[in-house]
Write a structure and sequence with these properties.
Blueprint lengths: L2 E5 L2 E5 L2 H7 L6 E6 L5 E6 L9
Antiparallel strand pairs: 1-2, 3-4
């Protein structure tokens, strides 16, 4: 189950532990929401570049 929490004007979600672990996501992982033309929302990992910057 995903939960939405509002804290100081920012929305935060909780990602199920089993999903995060299966994807190898940690507290340092950066994710982006992407919406397609049909209104579907996808969660995409932002991979760091070789020089440490984020793509």
């Amino acid at each position: 189950m995903v939960k939405v929490v509002v804290n100081n004007g920012q929305y935060k979600i909780t990602i199920p532990k089993d999903l995060a672990e299966s994807k190898g996501w940690t507290s340092k992982t950066r994710l982006r929401f992407v919406e397609d033309t049909e209104g579907r929302v996808y969660l995409v990992e932002i991979k760091p570049l070789k020089d440490g910057r984020r793509k």
